[in-house]
Amino acid sequence: GQNIDQPTEMTATEGAIVQINCTYQTSGFNGLFWYQQHAGEAPTFLSYNVLDGLEEKGRFSSFLSRSKGYSYLLLKELQMKDSASYLCAVRDQGGLTGGGNKLTFGTGTQLKVEL
Amino acid sequence: KAGVTQTPRYLIKTRGQQVTLSCSPISGHRSVSWYQQTPGQGLQFLFEYFSETQRNKGNFPGRFSGRQFSNSRSEMNVSTLELGDSALYLCASSLEGGPREQYFGPGTRLTVT
């Protein structure tokens, strides 16, 4: 199984940079996802890491260290609209017939961006 | 291209009843996954269907079941509803179920009284 930990809440200032950490213990690993979820809405995909290192996509970057079971999501030039829950999810090694999408999600980090 | 659609959006049921929720994936997507989201437990994986076969399964009791049709549309059924089944049920679709992002639908808010 998987166990995923991420902070419950974080607060940051508009225009600043924030780093949301995620640690995981896993019996099988086949990639790590970050999703953003605004209140009352469905999660939307932000990033996917399967190899160690940093993936950058505009204001958002995600880092993975498989040996340490650690990832972070970095948000730059924060905007008020970035206030949301950020979900870390680990994809399992394989399912009943191998492959596929079996994601275990953390409980999410509620980010509040203030003026 | 239309997104993932789920029906109904809201549902109120009584304990002991059963319920069927429907999910239509994005056109061309063959993998459909179902999740339960509650404030206490967060997003929990129920099962995944691919080409009408259940490919992955989470740790939910047998009261939770699903199926997928030849057009990739999927349904999930919960029998003998319990108060604890009150949750947002989300489905997500992806192209092949490989290392690709999943696109989530708006969810069905189920309330069990």
Please give the most extensive interface between any two protein chains, plus how many residues each contributes. A-B, 27 and 31 residues
Poorly predicted sequence stretches spanning 5 or more consecutive residues of chain A: none
Could you tell me the mean pLDDT of chain A? 91
Whole-Å distance between the termini of chain B? 37 Å
User: Hey, roughly how much beta strand do the residues of chain B contain?
Assistant: over 45%
Outline the low-pLDDT stretches of chain B.
Answer: none
Structural class of chain B: mainly beta
Break the fold down into its secondary structure elements and pairings:
The complex is a heterodimer of chains A (115) and B (113).
Chain A: E1 2-5, E2 9-13, E3 18-26, E4 32-37, E5 44-49, E6 53-57, E7 60-65, E8 70-75, E9 84-91, E10 103-105, E11 109-114
Parallel strand pairs in A: 2-11
Antiparallel strand pairs in A: 1-3, 3-8, 4-5, 4-9, 6-7, 7-8, 9-10, 9-11
Chain B: E1 5-7, E2 10-13, E3 19-24, E4 31-38, E5 42-50, E6 53-57, E7 64-68, E8 74-78, E9 87-94, E10 103-104, E11 108-112
Parallel strand pairs in B: 2-11
Antiparallel strand pairs in B: 1-3, 3-8, 4-5, 4-9, 5-6, 7-8, 9-10, 9-11
Task: Walk me through the structure.
The complex is a heterodimer of chains A (115) and B (113). With 115 residues, chain A is an all-beta fold. Chain A is built from no helices and 11 strands. In chain A, strands 2, 4, 5, 9, 10 and 11 form a 6-stranded mixed sheet that branches. Chain A has a 5-stranded antiparallel sheet with strand order 1-3-8-7-6, with no helix packed on it. In chain A, strand 4 and strand 5 form a beta hairpin. Chain B is mostly beta strands and 113 residues long. The model of chain B has no long low-confidence stretch (mean pLDDT 93). Classes of the chains: A mainly beta (115), B mainly beta (113). The interface between A and B is medium-sized, with 27 and 31 residues.
